[in-house]
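Structure first, sequence second, as always.
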């Protein structure tokens, strides 16, 4: 099921397989062991649309216009769609961990699929659909860069890229609320609540694996961000939500110093 979701392009089937897998796990009918060879991450297949551009080539639009709002939610839909791949890929590519590891990432894949459908339905209600606009491929670049390093994957994806949402989303909720768009604010609130849990899972496994390897998890996090992240993470950082999601004060202090 993981291989299907990563190496087939059909969006509807990908969402269905993800929800089906979560249901099978809930009723105890899903195996998390495999002797099948792992396909290269370079062969992962994405739908033909949207066109993927470099982040610097993406157009900038404000939220005060209908086209700006569509562009915002299209970008968010793409982030959530790629997040489904990211959760399945960590489940598929990294073998030999406890069953709870795989159940945690399946839970995340299932919630990301729900988020994507919510946002896609919202886009459709605004007269657009996922794939109508270009999107950036930055998130998946990080997956490819960390395909052979579980600690780097955990540091870069849940504890860097996804954690960025903890900093940005509360402000976006406030903006939509001020604009009187309570539907958009409600969708973002649901996503934010789940994303805190996703980052917390990433933090748990990063810390746990570092401890098993007798590594200082705070120093290892800093080392991996310096190695794999181009430039420096941008602030400001939401200390309250990051603490809830498993960051230490020392990690956040370093992030704030690195701005």
């Amino acid at each position: 099921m993981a291989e299907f979701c990563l190496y087939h392009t059909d969006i509807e089937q990908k969402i269905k397989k993800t929800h089906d897998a979560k249901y099978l796990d809930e009723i105890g009918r899903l195996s998390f062991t495999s002797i099948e060879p792992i396909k290269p991450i370079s062969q992962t297949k994405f739908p033909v649309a949207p066109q993927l551009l470099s982040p610097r080539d993406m157009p900038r639009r404000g939220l005060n216009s209908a086209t700006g709002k569509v562009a915002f939610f299209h970008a968010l839909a793409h982030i959530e769609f790629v997040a489904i791949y990211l959760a399945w890929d960590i489940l598929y590519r990294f073998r030999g961990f406890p069953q709870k590891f795989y159940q945690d990432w399946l839970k995340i894949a299932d919630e990301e699929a729900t988020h994507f459908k919510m946002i896609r339905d919202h886009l459709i209600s605004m007269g657009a659909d996922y794939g109508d606009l270009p999107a950036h491929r930055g998130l998946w670049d990080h997956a490819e860069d960390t395909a052979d390093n579980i600690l780097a994957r955990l540091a870069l994806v849940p504890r860097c890229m996804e954690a960025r949402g903890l900093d940005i989303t509360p402000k976006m909720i406030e903006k939509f609320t001020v604009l009187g768009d309570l539907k958009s604010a409600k969708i973002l609130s649901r996503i934010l609540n789940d994303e805190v849990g996703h980052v917390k899972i990433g933090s748990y496994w990063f810390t746990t694996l570092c401890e098993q390897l007798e590594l200082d998890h705070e120093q290892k996090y800093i080392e991996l961000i310096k190695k794999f992240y181009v430039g420096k993470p941008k602030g400001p950082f939401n200390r309250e939500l990051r603490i809830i999601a498993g960051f230490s004060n020392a990690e956040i202090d370093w992030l704030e110093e690195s701005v």
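Margin note: Strands lie at 52-53, 135-136.
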